[in-house]
Task: structure prediction
Amino acid sequence: MPFNVEEEISLLVGHIERLGSPEDSTVQIKFKTLFDDDDVGNTMESLAGTLKAAKKRKIISYGPELLLQGASDDVIITLNKQ
Result:
C-alpha cells in the first residue's frame, strides 16, 4: 500500500485533537504523548515523516527540525488554526 501523505496528515490531526489540550483556539500536545499512544503507532506509517510534512504545510508547528524519542519528549506540537 503506497504512503498517502494527505491521509497520514489527516490521521495526525485527528490524533492531536483526540489527545491534545485546547489552548487559545488551537490544540497542543507534547511529542511524548503522541509518540507513546498505541493508536498513533498502529495507524500511522511514519510519525516523524508525517510531522515534518504537516509542519511544511503549516498545519502544525513545533521548534526543532527533527523530533527524536527521549530528546524531544517535552517539545510542544501546536495544531495551527485552519
About this structure: The mean pLDDT is 92.
